[in-house]
Amino acid sequence: MTYLIVREPTDDEKLNMYILYKLSTYKDSIVGVYYIEELGYYGPILKLRDIPRELKDIVRPVDVNIVRRSLKMICMRCGWCCERESGAFMFENEAERVGLSRWSRIRTVKLINGDKVRVYYVDAGPNGRCIFYDPKRKLCTIHKAKPVICVVTYCARYAVDSEGNLYRRVSRSVRGVVHFKKVQTTY
Ligand code: SF4
């Protein structure tokens, strides 16, 4: 199997949406969001047998040992991303999986290759809460079908290493370097 890191987002929305749109059909191959200090990389990693032709312009292989030495972001279920101004959205292929009738805001966006795709916003609850978030149980009610934007974005506050030790971020990113401190020996 090949581990792949994804081209990092830029300030070009058309490029970012292009990357996300392509990833949306490979969501099940995303093994997590990682911080790879030695590459200055913070983003999703995919695990696939080969590099699919349609992903060749947005991914590159990474050595599995580098992945093992890295930190994998984890969600502590504080709810912040989903509860307030979540801004979460789905592409049409994702929206179809959960039913298209519930959307309040639809936008057509142009990708960097000229294609146009429809984007369905799911942040229509109070204070921008995602309509799929259950605030009482503090969980996503469509966990397995959550959109790619929710799979690849993390608050980056907590992470685990390959041995299961828990880390907390103690600094902001400075030229791609973030500092984490081990806070628990098991998670
Ligand atoms: S789809 Fe799920 S993970 Fe994404 S914002 Fe909504 S509740 Fe949160």
Walk me through what this model shows:
The chain is an alpha+beta fold. The protein folds into 2 domains: 2-76 and 151-184, no CATH class; 80-150, no CATH class. The protein is built from 5 helices and 13 strands. The strands form 3 sheets. An 8-stranded antiparallel β-sheet has the order 4-1-3-2-5-11-12-13. Strand 11 (158-160) and strand 12 form a beta hairpin. The radius of gyration is 17 Å and the shape is globular. 25% of the residues are buried.
Which key features would you list for this structure?
187 residues; alpha+beta; 2 domains; 8-stranded antiparallel β-sheet; 3-stranded antiparallel β-sheet; 5 helices; 31% strand; binds iron/sulfur cluster
Short account of what is shown:
With 187 residues, the protein is an alpha+beta fold. Helices cover 18% and strands 31% of the residues. The chain contains 5 helices and 13 strands.
